[in-house]
Write the structure tokens for this entry.
Amino acid sequence: MSVDAKYKTTATATGGGRDGKTALADGTLALQLTVPKELGGPGGDGANPEKLFALGYSACFLGAMRVAAAQLKTKVPEGSTVTATIGIGPRSEGGFGITAALDAYLPGMNAEEAQKLLDTTHTICPYSNAIKASVPVETTFHS
């Protein structure tokens, strides 16, 4: 598979990785990172890679939903949202892995149309495409 990247961004992590800092090279965002209590860290107000992944995946999926809707000749209902829940933990094979779940709020959309929209979006979204070989993504919707 080849990708013709039309946009790229660069970030650098410093310090201890999950308990350090991360910043975009263009200076538009810098974050303090902290390890969650559930993973043996202090927890607190800092960000972590899973929080950042959830932010990006929810936004990307909602944007891709608009592309999918155009392909399906329908519209994403006004007020629609996508909530991404990202988990991390030990894998049975060793090391760590992530879990992913997406819940779409599609006000007024019937179940058949909503499911078709989610399925199509899942084939378009770059985040979905990046993880589909190794992370099962649970998709749900409600209206």
